[in-house]
Amino acid sequence: MHLGSRAVAVRRLCPQLEVLRQRFVECAGNQLESGHCSGTMADVAKKIREHVGVEGGYHAIPKSRDGLLKFQPKRNELPNRSMKDSHTTANVLLESDALMRERFVYGLGLLRMGRIMEELDLLAVWICHRHIFPPLLPKGVPLPYTFVTLLVDHAHFLVEKFKPDVDVSLSGHVSWTGNSSMEITAYVRQSGLVLAKAIFMIAARNATNSRPAPVNPLVPADELEDCIYKEALERHKRRTEKLARLESKRQPTMEEEQIMYEVFTRTKGIEGPSDTATLPADCRWMSEWQRSTLLHPFPQNRNEANTIFGGFIIRGAIETSYITACLYCGDYSVIRFISDITFTHQIPVHSYMKLRAYVVYTHDNYIQLMTVVIAINGNNFTEFHCNTLHLTYICKHKVPEILPRSYHEALWYLSGRRHFQRFLTSINRDMEGSGSSSAGDD
């Protein structure tokens, strides 16, 4: 009732996603290009290790980087950088490499979005390496920095079916900088067509990952970069406002209170006993639609800071939510949107991970999920919250409505509704003026 008009507009757009060469619109349709290519994603991983001086292979006690602390530059020693300084592309060779293709596809032949996000996170870290330029660093000395993913602002997927046998091109650049943090805008392309976009926030830390480290200021070099920078400033402003009012403590609005009351009267009634509840037709209880899994990360899943790589965590959460969405709708589902992935704790390499996906909101053929990542310490087996992901999936047919059974679940229901509204707003903004995309950077 409250989202009907927007949902109709989204449904009308869906057929266009199959027949038009859609693209994200940024600054009158222009996207940044530099012509720089970093090779394959395997090359990127190798370059990162070489750049920070990390030895290959796993060592239970990593080589100390304390000696690099004396090379940490001061902020006033770092020159300005432009977006083109950090811009690069890297390729995932699905067409010519059968073994690589095997790693990136589901049994149905669909491309694994969890794998794509994992690779994008790695590329975002490499883009930070390209942005940082300490001119006083002696030649041959490794970069005295560590880069940690703070959050993923959002990731948007435009095309329902990625082609499993066509090379994927990943590209991106720094789009905003703070004192010790950087926003990275990253894209996924196939055959020149933009299929996905993600916004990462990366923190710069010193060589031992014990303190923040300064980053080169970003100064736009031309009108296009200035336009992109202004968009990034708006995102930064919205993120700052969100921090001031945590979603978990956000009080329902009057409209949301009315929605909660309507759900209550549908399931309990205003005259029936307070301890009974009736499930309306074609509905399901939220409490009965959660699925969980346990993962054991291994050293191959670590980053240069010897903690579990953020991209691996995102991949595990996406794949758990994908399974949950498919079970809920009784068919395969397709991810459309991810929002507000915030990493609250780093996970030591000897830990375990518990992932739990909840269906928290539904509308027509859309499923909104909340996936919670819990880390389990491998020494004392204590648990601590790592992050929460909010994901939007689409099915081929209308799905049963999910309903809360308690006040706590009602708050999750409202949170899911807010994230679904953000998805609709993003669709309206990103699809405006869509047309054919160029070949891009390849």
UniProtKB/TrEMBL annotation:
Q: What InterPro entries does this protein's entry cite?
A: HOTDOG_ACOT, HotDog_dom_sf
Tell me the GO BP annotations in alphabetical order.
acyl-CoA metabolic process
Specify the HotDog ACOT-type domain's residue ranges.
84-208, 287-399
Q: Name one GO molecular function term.
A: fatty acyl-CoA hydrolase activity
Q: Listed GO cellular component terms?
A: mitochondrion
Q: Which UniProt keywords apply?
A: Hydrolase, Repeat, Transit peptide
Question: Which family does the UniProt entry place this protein in?
Answer: Belongs to the acyl coenzyme A hydrolase family.
Q: What is this protein called?
A: HotDog ACOT-type domain-containing protein
Organism this protein belongs to: Drosophila gunungcola
